[in-house]
Amino acid sequence: MANRELLKALARGMTPEMKQFFTKALKSRFRPAEPPAPGPKWWQKPGLGIMYQTEYRPGWHWNRNFEAFNRSMKGPDGKLAFNGPFCQIEDWVRASVAAGVDYHIMEIKWHDGICYFDTSLTEWKTPVDYALQFAEASRKAGIPFLYYYSSIFDHNPQFDRIQPSKRTASFIGIPPKPEYEEYIKGQYREIMERYRPDGMWIDWYWPDGPTEATIRFFRETYPEVVLAFNAANLQPGSYSRLDYTSGEGHDLDGPYLKILKEETGTMAVFSSTWKWASLNRRMFTHRWELISPAGRWWEDPRTRDDPYDLPRMAAVTMACGGLHCTGVAAQMDGSLYAEQAEQLEILGAWYRPRKSLFSGSAPLPYGGEKPPGVNVTPPSVRPIACVSGGDRVLHLVNMDGATRPISVELRGRPWRAVDSAWLEPEGAPLELKKTKAGFSLSIAKRQVDPVDTIVRLTGRFWRH
Questions:
Q1: Structural domain range at position 325
Q2: Could you say which of 332, 359, 386 is where a domain stops?
Q3: Which residues contact 231 (CB under 8 A, 6 or more apart)?
Q4: What is the pLDDT of residues 334-355, one digit of tens each?
Q5: 22 is a domain residue
Q6: Which of 344, 359, 374 lies at the terminal end of a domain, its last residue?
Q7: Element (H, E) at 422
Q8: Residue spans of beta strands (DSSP E) within 131-243
Q9: pTM for this prediction
Q10: Are 46 and 321 a contacting pair, CB within 8 Å?
Q11: Which of 83, 192, 208, 292 has its CA 20 to 30 A from that of 376?
Q12: Tell me: the pLDDT tens digits for 57-104?
């Protein structure tokens, strides 16, 4: 583990709960394997999701000046003159169906405070009830749906007099403000009664009044709703209070954190999906998620140079036992950015035939980033070991995108009982050779997947 990176992160003004997380991370070894119980719900097993985002507006930075932004959104009468992003809900849901996702999320109130749902509590809302369209289309498609709701920042002009700052990062709930807490609880009640979503995805978990008010409200009033918070992966106090926790991963690999420079300053962002997913696999016994933008950054809709990086990120997260959600940005007219739509097609083509290989498995318990007794050549192919029923499954993630033959050595007690191997989802048998230390197998170049070469191993395996 990159202890130095974690220690540096510790020193950067984190909350006590985040310090607790990193202290535990430094000592972590493994988490127990927990195969999904019979008939688990969608959020209780690894799976793929999409978040449809209405937050990105060309020309505006994330940490924008909302005094100027709000003026740009008002008409001569001072009321909201909504000019986008609009929504094309039917197209979005069709994209979810085509990708074979297990759930999807729609942003219905971002940090700008504009409500994409019908509410009696503000005029700062879209003229069309997009939340209703999303609910109806999702139910018709049979896809569990959640709504994204920003509780931590809200730049609705009606809160200007209690707003700490005109910039995005303005913690409206610190110190607690009863007026705002009553507002969000009233909106939660409207959302639940009008649309009955399967879940709510709140941005983000923080030691502020809205976080406490949100959790208390849903647990007391709508206990059946699936409740998730962004940034909760780093907050141990959230683990027993939420149905699943979430956090971000912007890159396939790299450091835990990286510094992103913007015109408005610098900010630390969560980088390596490989590192965070591996850490979560070892530490967590609760359900968790990583979310990654389909673009390079939330306000940079250009896709990554390698179109298979996003499927690799999803494979890593799900093989480590988590949910992986992809954030897709809408253009001002509501259509998805063309490159991101193509990225979803690639993601779906990879995921659909492999869905059951993730949803029906759980990571084996082992410390470190590499399963014991598994040696893979070339080293750019990284293994993740899972249990699937009575079998073992090796995910051989192609980190650099190069397609070349793969050699696998299985050594020691964990692999003595192997008696056969084959590729998934093709079902092609692989020759298993006995060696002094255990077994070896080779995968030809033509059989190597550009994302994740999956090997199923059968045998009378030990019980852990």
A1: 3-31+39-359
A2: 359
A3: 203, 204, 205, 206, 246, 247, 248
A4: 999 999 999 999 999 999 999 9
A5: yes
A6: 359
A7: strand 418-424
A8: 145-150, 199-203, 226-229
A9: 0.93
A10: yes
A11: 292
A12: 999 989 999 999 999 999 999 999 999 999 999 999 999 999 999 999
